[in-house]
Amino acid sequence: MSRPLAVPVPAPVSVGVSPLAPADVVRVARDGAPVRLTPEAAEAIERSRAVVDALAAGPVPTYGVSTGFGALATRHIPAEQRAQLQRSLVRSHAAGSGPEVEREVTRALMLLRLSTLATGRTGVRPATAQLLADLITHGITPVVHEHGSLGCSGDLAPLSHCALALMGEGQVRDAEGRLVPAAEALAAAGLAPVELAAKEGLALINGTDGMLGMLVLALEDLRVLLRTADVAAAMSVEAQLGTDRVFAAELQALRPHPGQAASARNLVALLAGSGVVASHRGDDCNRVQDAYSLRCAPQVHGAARDTVDHAALVASRELASAVDNPVVIGDRVESNGNFHGAPVAYVLDFLAIAAADVASISERRTDRFLDAARSHGLPPFLAHDPGVDSGHMIAQYTQAAIVSDLKRLAVPASVDSIPSSAMQEDHVSMGWSAARKLRRAVDGLTRVVAIEVLTGARALDLRAPLTPSPATGAVVRLLREVGIEGPGPDRHLAPEIETAVGLVRSGAVVDAVQAVIGEMS
Description:
By secondary structure, the chain is mainly α. It has 2 domains: 13-207, Fumarase/aspartase (N-terminal domain) (Fumarase C, Chain B, domain 1); 215-279 and 288-517, Fumarase C, Chain A, domain 2 (Up-down Bundle), CATH 1.20.200. It has 20 helices and 9 strands. Strands 4-6-7 form a 3-stranded antiparallel sheet. Strand 6 (171-173) and strand 7 (179-181) form a beta hairpin.
């Protein structure tokens, strides 16, 4: 009897005084990689804790150390009540509501909070930082809720639910995904809860980690999705008898946006060797210009790529930040406003706009396949027996419904602000809300592009005996290999759509193409 293969344990991610790489955030959040604090981080944490201990022992009130919080910061808290102060802070701020957020989001925000603790700017004790690292390594994931963060003073409620677990309170998911009390999960892992000391409660909850974690994950997804959108566009240009001439480098150079040039390079490579394109390239072709959704694909996809690059720059700066209030500077603690989420919130909103527009142009390309007046010889709705069969008619309805949702999700959250904390916190970023709607937008874009790929493959089959390019042909083969059949009588379409969505989300469509043409831009 053969033994099952052991699942390899991912290599640990080192968390130190240097910024985390986006790839490391993804490895911890999605792949379950463990973490370890570097010796340099441990030294930095000890130094900052010594500063906090000295201030806590002194007679002068220090915000976050020996005072209340927010609008209650004017009250000096005596030493014997400071442990209770930290417990009360975390318990009262763990006020989230609504559905549980995804495990990868919670793991990302825990990692990013640990990264800030490792800078030595927050004043936590080494044991507290180590326990947070241990929770991540053991796969213990606190239950964090959809609603509760205003994106200013950081993602207070989400991070408070994580801090609550360090105290052995609240609910968590264990490594197997079971919902258990935090104290039970800690004990099963051989861990003991901490009693928070001066400033530690505030240090654990005052960061932009939730919105930043979701930004990093969205950037990872969007880079794959925008390459896949180029693949889908190439399939549409090809099967709708469009031209590849408009994608020439000399034309793109007239408007030197880097994303546009990259997308156009992809389209040229994707369409190279296409028998379908070659079939109508002669002087007898009476097509003067293709529709905008075909001809302007590099301009739209390229603008989205440039938006992703800008958002990635913001994310890199945020990953290099120590976001807390107050922070330890030298031998003192200083208040600041670095917890405000505006820089992250803006780009989260910007990306939702880009996702909506890329989905919109994808839906328009798909719709052209289905209209016999515009599809240049393809059957209505790509149906096997139009009238008896409806083909992909309702697949486009699904796209249209999603695109409509994406347009609503593109309305920015960051322009809203509801004052809180008795007007002490009178302008907030709503960055968490921007991040949550971007996650829905990324999912919607995935589905829209998948339906275009599905429809483009069916249309390419209907162009036989003309042959697709090697690259787009590889995508058609991929779909057929996973059980999505070619043209024929109507069948249950939803499972095929979901299969295509999985291929797009996993990057399998891009992988199939790159196996033929090499790395895409």
